[in-house]
Write a structure and sequence with these properties.
The protein is an alpha+beta fold. Among the domains are: 2-74, 2-Layer Sandwich (Alpha-Beta Plaits); 211-274, Calcium-transporting ATPase, cytoplasmic transduction domain A (Distorted Sandwich), CATH 2.70.150; 371-396 and 500-615, HAD superfamily/HAD-like (Rossmann fold), CATH 3.40.50; 398-499, 3-Layer(aba) Sandwich (Calcium-transporting ATPase, cytoplasmic domain N), CATH 3.40.1110.10. Helices cover 49% and strands 20% of the residues. The protein contains 22 helices and 26 strands. A 7-stranded mixed β-sheet has the order 14-26-25-24-15-22-23, sandwiched between helices. A 6-stranded antiparallel β-sheet has the order 16-21-20-19-18-17. Helix 10 (331-344) runs antiparallel to helix 20 (609-644). The two termini are 49 Å apart.
Length: 678
């Protein structure tokens, strides 16, 4: 079985990766994966309790500061920085005493060692533990730099190196935790309880215990725990955490309401229509939690490089030491410059900022009602240059309205035609049938011998006459309904699907971004051309079956320069959603098949969020490469300056810590970015 638990106390991605590798060596544990940013550990095992014990033993040998969180425990790691700061100041105070006060040699070394241990005991411990496991990382680089500087008699630099490194790690953890807190409210969407009405009394229960048809009560300030229909009451509803829309919506009796919404005023009695595992909020939570497992090529590459990076740095440091010694014939100078190389080359800036950038981008998108299933899809979304749309339910509402009624029998009015059609359609579930019945304003009578034929229409008897409502002549106009009496056509009802208010905006935004728009529909030519013309879509294709849409996308993909997005909402869109480079499904409560097949899920049915997703993806990807170039550029400059003797070890530490903090702060911009719109 697959499990997911919390893991805290890891202060760097490389440490997390090393621990992950050790977990995967344990018997009965497969596919262990540590998500450093989200502090989650996922793994597969047949014996959970035994595996947990083995992982705890491994942690004690490799990462003593780490801790598995199996139950919903209160996190205490947020205050560990206070403990670290206290030890830091004690270490600095003891170090200053050793360096500034005249004392015997043995006393100096005692205070020096105490100061060095207080300042960096975590760093040394991790370096040694991993070294025994045959692993090396940045902790070893700092440990070697401290030992080397002390051996050369550079006592102040030795202490300053570890002090500045520790300060940097504290600041890094604070920055990462700030980012975690900014996005943590997404995970708080999950309701803790539901209040059901049982025998007239209110009873608080776990949302998982509520059954279909149960009635729950939700009061002002509370979060709706389950999807349902309002049976009594009205209220203003905050749906920002679901869709990103800041304006509240007003709901009343018989309206549907989604779990995760917050009641701003009033009291609602809700009849539950979906159990918790199928609820809107649970679907959103699953998508958010699993997003970190699908990494982009950039993120994966950085992770692979980090595996060998530290060993490469040590080898290059030895090479620098050898060259400088050969040129200057000064061993101390050669060793010192080699140590500078070790310090500057710490990979923290890359290892933290790249996954943090993607994490921030994914979190920002989620807050806007755009659920991207992984950073690999975020990267792909940034490259889209063709977006194909399904029509019904995607660019249109899927709710038909009667445009025109035509009577072909001089003895019957247009109102009579609508009434006769409604008689036959009154029990049909077809969208056109519902629209016709809603358009009728007379009380409907019962009819006999009702027979509904899929793809044709409804046959029935009424007042000794035989009627048919549908498309008897196989007309290709899918929104034309014909009415026959005793095989004679007596009327026509023309309907149309309403275009969503946001569709024109969505297509306009994509055109401004030089993204080609395509409309793929199974409807007839006239209707599709009308929609395409209204929305100014670049290319339209009509009368397409699901397999025709699939073949069209296959043709588009033959051009290697095309990166294709497909936007749809129905089960028939699933093949095309899977084929596209980025499949985007409309609505978290849409077809389960389309949600499963897609790479991005828009919580509401708003097509304008397609352009928002692309803009946010482009921005996040830009930040990732800014961090990579910034970190690599500054480190390269200081490596050259250090090798030439222009800068010292303290400058090297400032460069390493400084560039890491800059990269982290830059990453957090992706969390607050809001795309500009016209």
């Amino acid at each position: 079985m697959k499990y997911k638990i919390g893991i805290e106390g890891l202060d760097c991605p490389n440490c997390a990766k090393a621990l992950e590798n050790e977990f995967n060596k344990i018997d009965n544990i497969n596919n262990a994966n540590i998500d450093f940013i989200n502090q989650k550990l996922s793994f597969e095992t047949d014996n959970f309790d035994l595996s947990i014990q083995k992982m705890k033993n491994t942690i004690s040998q490799v990462e003593p500061s780490a801790k598995l969180i199996i139950e919903k425990e209160k996190k205490k790691t947020e205050l560990t920085w206070v403990y670290d700061v206290v030890l830091l100041f004690l270490g600095i105070a003891v170090g200053l005493c050793a360096l500034l006060i005249s004392m015997p040699t043995w006393a100096f070394w005692l205070l020096f060692v105490i100061s060095a241990v207080l300042l960096g005991y975590k760093t040394y411990l991790k370096a040694v533990l991993l070294l025994f496991k045959g692993k090396i990382n940045e902790n070893l680089l700092i440990t070697l730099a401290v030992i080397g500087a002390a051996a050369l008699g550079e006592y102040m630099e030795a202490l300053m190196v570890v002090a500045l490194y520790t300060i940097g790690k504290i600041l890094e953890n604070l920055a990462v935790n700030k980012s975690r807190k900014s996005i943590e409210k997404l995970t708080k969407l999950q309701p803790e309880y539901a209040v059901i009405i049982e025998n007239g009394n209110e009873k608080r229960v776990n949302p998982n215990e509520v059954k279909l048809g149960n009635k729950i009560i939700v009061k002002a300030g509370e979060r709706v725990p389950l999807d349902g229909v309002i049976s009594e009451g009205s209220a203003s509803i905050d749906v920002q955490s679901l869709t990103g829309e800041s304006l509240p919506v007003n709901l009343k009796t018989n309206d549907e309401i989604l779990s995760g919404s917050i009641i701003l005023d009033g009291v609602l009695y809700i009849t539950v229509t979906k159990e918790y595992q199928n609820s809107t909020i649970n679907k959103i939570m699953n998508l958010i939690e699993n997003a970190a497992e699908k990494k982009s090529k950039t993120e994966t590459l950085i992770s692979k490089i980090a595996k060998w990076y530290t060993l490469g740095v040590i080898i290059l440091s030895i090479l620098v030491w050898g060259i400088v010694w050969a040129v200057t014939s000064d061993l101390n100078t050669a060793i010192y410059r080699g140590l500078i190389f070790l310090v500057v080359s710490c990979p923290c800036a890359f290892a933290i900022s790249v996954p943090l950038s993607y994490f921030s981008g994914l979190g920002n998108a989620s807050r806007k009602g755009i659920l991207i299933k992984g950073s690999n899809y975020l990267d792909a979304c940034a490259k889209l240059n063709v977006v194909a749309f399904d029509k019904t339910g995607t660019l249109t509402t899927g709710q038909f309205k009667v445009d025109k009624v035509k009577s072909l029998d001089k003895n019957k009015s247009e109102e009579d035609i609508v009434y006769i059609a409604s008689l036959g359609e009154q029990n049909s579930l077809h969208p056109l049938a519902k629209s016709i019945v809603n358009f009728n304003n007379k009380k409907l009578e019962k009819v006999s011998n009702v027979k509904e034929v899929a793809g044709e229409g409804v046959y029935f008897d009424y007042k000794n006459n035989k009627y048919f409502v549908g498309r008897k002549n196989n007309t290709k106009q899918s929104t034309l309904v014909e009415v026959f009496e005793n095989n004679i056509k007596i009327g026509e009802i023309h309907l149309s699907d309403t275009i969503k208010e946001t569709s024109k905006y969505a297509c306009s935004e994509l055109k401004q971004m030089n993204v080609k728009t395509v409309l793929l529909s199974g409807d007839n030519k006239e209707i599709v051309e009308s929609v395409g013309s209204t929305l100014n879509i670049d290319e339209i294709k009509y009368q397409l079956l699901p397999q025709d849409k699939y073949k069209y996308l296959e043709e588009l993909k033959k051009n290697k320069n095309n990166c294709i997005g497909y936007v749809g909402d129905g089960i028939n869109d699933a093949p095309s959603l899977m084929l596209a480079d980025v499949g985007i499904s409309m609505g978290i409560n849409g077809s389960p098949a389309s949600i499963e097949a897609s790479d991005i899920v828009l919580v509401d049915d708003n097509p304008k969020k397609v352009s928002t997703a692309i803009k946010l993806s482009k921005y996040t990807r830009k930040i990732v490469w800014q961090n990579i170039i910034l970190s690599a550029g500054i480190k390269l400059i200081f490596l050259i300056l250090g090798a030439l003797g222009v800068t010292g070890m303290l400058s090297a530490v400032f460069a390493d810590v400084g560039v890491t903090l800059l990269a982290i702060l830059n990453s957090m911009r992706a969390l607050i970015y809001t795309p500009k719109t016209d």
